[in-house]
Design a protein that fits this description.
The chain is mainly beta. The protein contains 3 helices and 20 strands. The strands form 5 sheets. It has a 4-stranded antiparallel sheet, with no helix packed on it. Strand 15 and strand 16 form a beta hairpin.
Length: 308
């Protein structure tokens, strides 16, 4: 059964993470730098907001959007990542190159986040310097716009069973397969003690699609992946994957998926034969007006995913 909830104050939710086992989630958009907490039991306006623009230290006053695309909760911190892409015309967008963390304090009814450590702006340099990743064309991808074939665009972030982070690439899609990269030391990076260290994660057959969102679901020890095109085509699919690089992801049958443009997923609960998931979508993008404020809306579509 499909349900829809409407959330106010922003459009184009591009990153989100559920706050432990509560009904709350933290979200970011790719149009501003305000992090928001919402409660799915009381959809509407956010219950908490935090503008991180000054914390992220923009170097160019003309570049004011960090393009936050992924979020993951690990050890009471929420880690956030920008797309690390160039602009649509191929121009360098230095402010897209941010990786940072927020602290999280919550009970079952309220949650707050606050900045912690130092935002990291050298992640792309570290990726390009990683010898293990050289076969996947990131050097060439970095020089291209994000929505041309072979460009660079990070959109997925989740945890691993080893308390690492797993980054998913919307683009490039080397040899028609989606690329996942492990970040081995996220806490040390935002604490300013180490440069980012990476390892190969996986190279997955998602039907020629890249990764638009990924979430590790501990209760079933599996990853849920929203796969989609590198450009604006409407070609989405949902997979579950064991987490082992040698295993092929399984395509899931998700009714109504073709009616939304999923940008993020938030796992809700497991039923006897399915998983209940909120898909956040940017279906309101084309409506006129500012990208934030009480009239701006994004949608969470709750769908069951058969899992057996």
């Amino acid at each position: 059964m499909m349900e829809r909830r409407f959330y106010l104050d922003a459009c184009d939710a591009s990153a989100a993470v559920r706050i432990a086992n509560t009904t709350m989630f933290a979200a970011a958009t790719d149009y501003d730098n305000t992090l928001r907490i919402f409660n799915r039991d009381r959809p509407g306006v956010p219950t908490f907001t935090l503008d991180v623009t000054s914390f992220l230290q923009p170097r160019d006053p003309e570049q004011t959007e960090a393009d936050i695309e992924g979020a993951a909760l690990l050890n009471r911190r929420i880690y956030w990542i920008g797309s690390h892409s160039r602009g649509a015309s191929g121009e360098v967008r230095e402010f897209h190159r941010r990786f940072f963390a927020t602290t999280l304090v919550h009970d079952h009814f309220r949650a707050r986040i606050g900045t912690v450590g130092t935002p990291y702006s050298e992640l792309l340099d570290d990726l390009l310097a990683c010898e293990e990743l050289r076969p996947y064309g990131l050097q060439a991808a970095e020089a291209l716009p994000p929505q041309v074939e072979g460009g660079l665009n990070i959109e997925g972030l989740t945890t691993t069973t080893a308390d690492e982070l797993l980054m998913g690439f919307r683009n490039p899609i080397p040899e028609g397969r989606a690329l996942l990269v492990k970040m081995l030391n996220p806490a040390e990076v935002v604490n300013g003690r180490e440069r980012a260290r990476f390892a190969f994660g996986a190279h997955l057959d998602l039907g020629g699609r890249g990764i638009r969102a990924i979430e590790y679901v501990r209760s079933v020890n599996s990853y849920l992946i929203v796969a989609g095109p590198y450009d604006d085509r409407h070609d989405f699919a949902v997979y579950h994957w064991s987490g082992r690089p040698e295993d092929t992801p399984k395509l899931m049958e998700v009714e109504w998926l073709d009616e939304i443009t999923p940008e993020e997923l938030v796992y809700i609960e497991a039923g006897p034969l399915d998983l209940i998931v909120d898909f956040l979508s940017d279906d309101m993008t084309n409506s006129p007006g500012p990208t934030q404020g009480p009239l701006r809306t994004f949608i969470a579509t709750t769908l069951p995913i058969p899992f057996y």
